[in-house]
Protein 1
Amino acid sequence: MALPNAYPFEIQDDTKIIRSVREAPRAHYLFEIESFALLKSSISHAGATYLESTEFEAANYKWVLVIYPNGNQDDDGAEDHISLYLKLIDQLGHGYSVNAAIKFCIYDYNRNTYLIIHSLAEQRYNVMEKQKGIARALPLSDFTSSSNGFIKRDRCKFGIEVFVADTTIARTAICSTLKERTNSVYTWPMNGFQRSQMLNTLTNSPGKGAIGNWRFTQEDGDWSITAISHFFSSLWISLT
């Protein structure tokens, strides 16, 4: 279900079916059917409506590809279509979910390419929903047309890509600015920087020269300023 667009600019419907063509399958699993006509007949005689592939592993989970050769009429009234689904085999605990981006592909024997079928929306699997996919993946008339090349001598090949989203909580950084401060300027006059005057306010520290420390309170806590006169030839100041 697509979320409503609350913005003044266009947002693409992530439930829309997207079809594209590529040469390399880049699939996690390929499933070839030797006789599509016999498959349809066998499914019909068995009183079933779909075929499940052998089990395969992708993204650290176990899956099966589910094919409805006559369409899944219980999903969007998809009769006269090829319906393709990905079923999760692993058992999920209550409250746990798996978000996966799925791409189905169908091999074109005429052009040696793959038709890629997917939607922009991620599919969420949980303990109640273990099967997700596309009910109207391709009209049967297009799939069986010899000019399209999806069936060659009654053979056909399907594939699937699975990308599971990382559920790890992302690191978060916050950019903040300091509020404007008032009365944040403090002045300590140190006129005539000479040894005789410095000794009145600074205490001698062997090997370092003379050290002085003053403390003051600001809105955000207590602060201190330290001044170090290195043999009275230079001055180092630290604010903490």
Note: Residues 36-45 form the longest helix (10 residues).
Protein 2
Amino acid sequence: MSLVETATSMNGAFDSIPIINMGCVSTPEERATLAWQIREACLKVGFFYVSDHGIPQETIDAVFSAMKAYFSLPLETKMKLYHREGANYRGYAPLSDANFSAESRGDMFEGFVIGWEEPIPKEGDDKKEVDTTAVPNLWPSEPAGFREALLNYYHATVGLRNALYRLFALALDLPETYFGDIHRNLPTMRSHYYPPQTGSEDDFIMGINAHSDFECFTILWQEPGIQALQVLNSDNRWINAPPIPGTLVINIGDLFARWTNDVFKSTVHRVINESNVPRYSIATFVGVDHHVEVKPLPTCVSPERPPKYEPIIAGDHVRNRLKETYHRDTTSAK
């Protein structure tokens, strides 16, 4: 059965998120087996967990500690790096600054956004190996070790991104290196703090309202032990995606769904912290170079499934979605 035929026959009424072990990728046969598992997850769910992902636990522990220390600082200290006063949304975002729903008052999380940067600047580094749209990060003077911890984790996710792009290519019946030359535009990473909410559950505000991510895919770390992420299936039921020790969550974004002619699912999801304790997470948003023209891949179209989308430039798509998220007028929401 072809990729398109398989996608057409797939039932999206999932009730759990699959777990995929990435520990065995040394041979073509192992990568083909793994790609087949990823294909099934992307066709049916649009979300999957990865275990044996290669990011050391000490790297995760260090960034978790750094996040907790930073978000505990006074608001006036954090606002010194307010992202709207910088370039390309780098820096700090206070509560309700982002708004994924026109009907809400904003989303109940604080964030801190960074992009590519070498942990130790290289002599003569002119960024030829990365997209020239890269802009400087903003860094706080405290807590100590914050920059190092975030960049170490960031670069670890870049390595995982590279492995996933190769597997996605195989899952789409494309050469393994198909996406190799078009993602010099390195990811954006946002750390999140979701404060505890008290009182009636009816009064709780969504940490992040129902939405789909807008780049190609997202690599998500969730604080252990706190359920908050939910994914919407084709029966319009919210399915919990709890943190599972030793795993990360991968989900397909709108740009990849468009690229695959909706063969891969960009699934609506939301976050609500009902735990009465603080919750933390880190999302790495993976895209492609901003100049790339995205149009349905040849393996994802057929006479029965013609292209659903007109070609679009990747950078235009991302800029439009950022404006929708951060430039909405939240004062009009009730």
Note: DSSP finds seven helices and 14 strands in the chain.
